[in-house]
Sequence to fold (607 residues):
Amino acid sequence: MNKKFEGEWLIKINRRYYYVNKVIACVLILAFIITTCAVPVNAEVENVETTPSRIALSSLEETIDSYVATNQKNTAAVSVVAIKNGETIVNKAYGYADIEQQRKADTSTVFEWGSTSKLLVWTSVMQLVEQGKLDLDTDIQDYLPEGFLKNLEYDAPITLMNLMHHNAGWEDRLIDLWYSSESDIVELGEALQKFEPRQIDKPVSVVAYSNYGTAMAAYIVELQSGQPFYKYVNEHIFKPLNMKDTSIHPSQYDNLNVLKRRNEIQGYTTNLKLISKNRAYISLYPAGGAMGTAEDAARFLAALMPVDRSNLLFANNDTLDEMLSTSLYYDGTSTPRIAHGFFEVEYWVPALEHAGSTAGFSSKFVFDPESNFGLVVMTNQSNEMAYNVGLVQKVYGSSFSTNSVESESGGYYLPARRVVSGFTKAYSMLSLQKYTTFELSNFANVVESNGAIEKASIPYNDFLPVSNLTINLIKASFIALAIAILLSLRAIIGYFIRLSKYKLNNWERPGTGFDKYHIVINIASLAFILNTILLFMRALGFSPYSSLRIHLILNLVYVILAVVYLVLLFYKLLKRSYSKKQKAVYIMSGMSAFLFAAFIMGWDLYF
Fold:
C-alpha cells in the first residue's frame, strides 16, 4: 500500500473513532442524568391515584369524554358517575333523554335500574340478619305463611343464602312478570303466589338467575319488618343515604318528582330506534323496579365502601364485611363467584358488580372495596353493551377467563335460567347457543366428568349441555311445521282454484261430501298459525296471562278438530271409494293437521 495513502487513511479512521467516542461519552452522560432523575419521577408516578385500569383519576373525565365521543353515533343517553374514597370524581350525562323532542340528558335525568335493584334486597336482608330477625341458613318456609309455596319438587330446604346465590332451582317465567298498565300490579305476596314457577332443579345444583327468588327475599323482609318493601327501603336505605331522587315503589307514587322525570325520558334500541312501549311495570318489583339518578346510585355504592368505616347502612361494620365477602365459589374451585347476591368479577382487580336491563334501559354498578373505587353507568338503551361493558372494562381493565377444557368438541348449551313448560318455553329453547371448545375455555368455569362437560358457568348463570337428540327434535319440529304450512296452503289454494274454474265455466261442482271437512280443517290450520303469531306478539307486549288464555284455548280446540278430522278421514276412506287424487288431497290435509297438532302439544302452545 502507498505509504502516503496509508497515512491519510489512518488519519481518517482516527478522526472517525474520535467522533464515535465523543458520541458514546455523551450518551453515557445522558443515561446517567436520566437514571439519577428517574427515582423521584417514578416515586411521583406511584403516588398518582388511578382507576383499576391505571387511568389517572385526574384524567378520568377526559378519558370518558373521549370514549363517549367515539361511540356517540350509537348513543341515546348515558349517565356516568365515578367515586373514590367517598368523593365524586366524575358525574356527567351525555346525549338525549328524548331524541324525538331533542331533550338532553343531564345529571338530574332519571334512569331505570333494572336488576341492579336486587342489591337493595340483599342489603335489606343483611340489615335484618344483623338485627337477628333473619338467618341466612334457615329454610325460608319458616318465614312464610303455611302452604305459601305449592310447586316445590324437592324436599331439600331453600334458604335465604340459596336466594342470594340464585340456586333455589326455580324455573324462569316470563308471562305476568311485566305489565303495560299499573292497574295490573298487585301486592307483592299475591304476585309471588300468582307467579310461582315450578322447581325444576335441586337446590344448590345449578345457578339460574332468578327474579322470583329475589322477590321472595324481599317479601320475607316485608314479613319480618312489618312494612311494604318499598317503605322499608325508603326508611332504611334511601333516607339515611339522602337518595331523594330514587324510588322503588311499583308506580313511583311515593316520589312524584321521580315519576315526573321518568316521563321525560324515552327508551331506545342499540341502533337508536324508539321503543314505543318502554314504560313497563314489573310485578315482582323488588327484583327490578328501582329508578333514579346515577348520582343517587353512586351514593349507594359509596355507602358500601365507607370512608373511615363510617357506616350508614349497618350498625356494625362486620355485617358489611360479611355481605361483601365471598359466599359462593365456582364448583370445585377456590374462585369467588357471588358475595351474598353481589357478583364477583375479576377485572384487573377483583370487583363486585351487578347489571340490569329493562324494556328500554340498561345499567351497571361496579365497585372495588379494596381501593374504594366505584362506577355507575346508566343508559336509556335496552341491552346496551358499549357503555355497560365497554366503558366498564375501559375503567376496570378487561375481564377474561381461560380454562383447560379436555372435551374434544363444543356443542349446544341452554342457560340454566330457562322455561321448561308452557308456551314461553319456545323463547328459552330458541336461545340455544353453540359453543366451540375454544369459546367454552373462556367461561369463568367449566365442570367436566368422564370427558363430557356437565356445565359451563359465568358469574350470573350456568349453562347446561343439550343433547343432539333434543337439537334434532327441535329442528325436526320446525321442518314439520313448514311442511304442514305448505300442505295447508296448497290444499286451500287448490280448492279455490278449482272452485273458480267451475264457476267460470258454469260447471256443476262435483262433491264427495268430504270436501267441507277438508276445507274446514285447512282453514283452521291457517287460523292456528295466525292465532299463535298473535299470541307471541301480545306476550312480548306485556299482556297478562289472563288475556292470553283465549289464544291457548283456541289452539287446544284446533287439536280436537285435528283428531276429529283424522278419525273421520279414516272412517270415510274405509267406507267410500275416492279417486287417487282425492285420496291424496285428503290424506295430505290429514298429515298437515297431525303435524300442527303435534307441534302444539310438543311446544306446550295450549297452556
